[in-house]
Amino acid sequence: MPDMLVKLYDLDDDWCFLAELKKGAITVRKPIGPEKHLIVQWVSDKFGPAWASETEAALANVPRTCFVAIKKAAIIGFACYDATALGFFGPIGVDRLHRRKGTGKALLLACLLDMKLKGYGYAVVGAVKDTDFFKKTVGAVEIPGSTPGLYRTRLKEAQSDIG
Hints:
The structure is a single chain. By secondary structure, this protein is an alpha+beta fold. The protein has a domain at 13-117: Gcn5-related N-acetyltransferase (GNAT) (Aminopeptidase, 3-Layer(aba) Sandwich). It has helices at 16-23, 36-47, 49-60, 103-117, 131-138, and strands at 4-7, 26-29, 66-71, 74-81, 88-94, 122-125, 141-142. The chain has a 7-stranded mixed β-sheet with strand order 2-3-4-5-6-1-7, with helices on both faces. A hairpin with a 6-residue loop joins strand 4 (74-81) and strand 5 (88-94).
């Protein structure tokens, strides 16, 4: 899975996507401290412990580098940046029942525009499965030779006893 590059300076400073989601009773915002455990648990349950770890890292950043999508007081999606490495976007995930309705796009744009406001010129999207989504949504391009990229030395669950 390749890494992709997004030119943040080419993104319009337009946050109207938040108002569009609100019409469907969905709010995208940064979480507050007492919500941390709920968000990390939700991400772990829906997407696994690795993404939960990255989310926990993003929630520990000051200011936070995580956004959540909420509908009827329930989490339906999340997105983070500066979790795995500085300048990296991800992970991002939306509950299966709420996909293909603009929530993922809104979470992506919220993170990328937040990065742009902080002065980043580019964002790297690491280990992308759905390259078409990022190409269509934000004009991302694949970074040649980026597979397996930063994640190549990532620790995984131990399979044997070192003893």
